[in-house]
Amino acid sequence: MSNRSSGSATVHFEYFNEFEDIFKQDPIVEPTIASSSRPNPITFELSRDDEEMPITQEQQPNTSKPKKNIKLKNALIDLNEVLRESEQNKEKRHQELISLQKEVLQSYNNIMEKLLEKI
Hints:
By secondary structure, this protein is mainly alpha-helical. It has helices spanning 16-23, 48-52, 65-118.
């Protein structure tokens, strides 16, 4: 190993080869897949139907992560519902504003027509 940024001398670890033999297959030490720096994130749609499907013992690993994954999935589903409701409310307000603007424009046209008739 070397420390190129500080200019220090190379550091030698006496048991480096032994540790490498022990840990070289461990995915925590050496990941099997490197993460990507893709500019476009992958999107997906979650639904409550997925939550209701029973998870068999074969599908469920022996770690505590499934509980965390279920909580995360439920949080994402709830957030998705809130965002959907927010978008619907925004669209409703937009349609109300357009309707009001049409009424104002129609009133203005009626007043202008009456004024033009008088001239």
